């Protein structure tokens, strides 16, 4: 048996539900599930809302209760077959006496996968959707997929720029280039990511708070990361004075002992990384953050930091808010670094979303090649 148009319709609904977990599931994936009874009527639906909380399948099965018997489940990711923070979903599916499960994509996580085979062994018919649906399911969870497969966080670079691509005036003023609506969208991005990163240049220029403020993401553990090779971050900066335990400063061996003692004494987490250059090694940093449960990292400037991420080919997504103004002159551009000499070597993206945001534009671009789906690696 293969999947039908009716199946696609129900999977659309499951994908819609999954997206509701955008703020709160990371570093778990977003998952949605729909349960039909034996006659094909909707009897339960649910999504994974919170890291460590109930999986989508369980929420949908609980809603369906005994009406699930003999029915069908649509789920956007292969049900887990392992004991993690919650018992295996495959057990719940079998004990609810679901007869058929339609899955949008396989789980690449070596610990969790195997649910499809497990269900089949127990007599449940399982169908995997075609490539088009699987691509949409993978796109929804691309941040989590990057973290799971590459063991580094998905990197989103966010900037507020003028029409001529500048992030500050020639005197360094950047508050505010964009309007309130764009700033609100910027804060929504923070709610979707696990950590925020800026360079010490931005700390010195703007003294930012780097907090989540909208209350959309109830998961604790939001982290601020500062790139600061020699630990120049002032003790009186907001990231040191307010909730220092949330702040990690990545530095190199060149950081003077006095600065280490000063910041360590203030309660900051210090992370010394080996580097071949004078600056913090981004690959080492990302590996460390990935191991610490950071699946999605928001990089909010400034120009030098954006440039280093671009030079290293480490930008997965760029979100630019463009204000209708020209700053001109030697004002810093959004991305400094070494740059490329040939167009052939440019870091290429695809525009995924382009929209108005109050008086400004909101541009979302994603690196090409993020559509890999049924791969289990
Ligand atoms: N419009 C916007 O969206 C926006 C957002 C943020 C900032 N800004 C503006 O951007 C300006 C600051 O930008 P900036 O370029 O001067 O500073 P930055 O990018 O915030 O910080 C750069 C500094 O970070 C340190 N660093 C450590 N490791 C690094 C690495 N691997 N790559 C790059 N830097 C590393 C370096 O100092 P050490 O060598 O001492 O470590 C470097 O000088 C300010 O005017 C601010 O207002 C605008």
Mean pLDDT across the residues is 94
- Unreliable stretches: 371-377
User: How would the global form be characterised?
Assistant: elongated
Q: What value does the Rg take, in angstroms? A: 23 Å
Secondary-structure content class: alpha/beta
Q: Ends: how far apart?
A: 26 Å
Strand order of the largest sheet: 10-9-8-7-11-6-12-14-13
Count the DSSP helices. 12
Quick one: how many beta strands?
Answer: 14
Largest sheet: 9 strands, mixed
* Ligands bound, unique: NADP nicotinamide-adenine-dinucleotide phosphate
Which percent range fits the helix content? 25-40%
How much of the residues is beta strand, in percent?
15-25%
Q: Encode the helix/strand succession as letters.
A: HEEHEHEHEHHEHEHEHEHEHEHEEE
Q: How would you characterize this protein structure?
A:
It is built from twelve helices and 14 strands. The protein has helices at residues 5-18, 56-64, 89-95, 115-121, 131-140, 142-150, 180-192, 200-206, 238-241, 257-265, 282-291, 303-311; strands spanning 32-36, 42-47, 72-75, 100-103, 125-128, 154-162, 195-199, 223-227, 247-251, 269-272, 296-299, 317-323, 349-357, 360-367. The protein has a nine-stranded mixed β-sheet. A five-stranded mixed β-sheet has the order 2-1-3-4-5, sandwiched between helices. It is elongated. Residues 371-377 have low confidence and may be disordered.
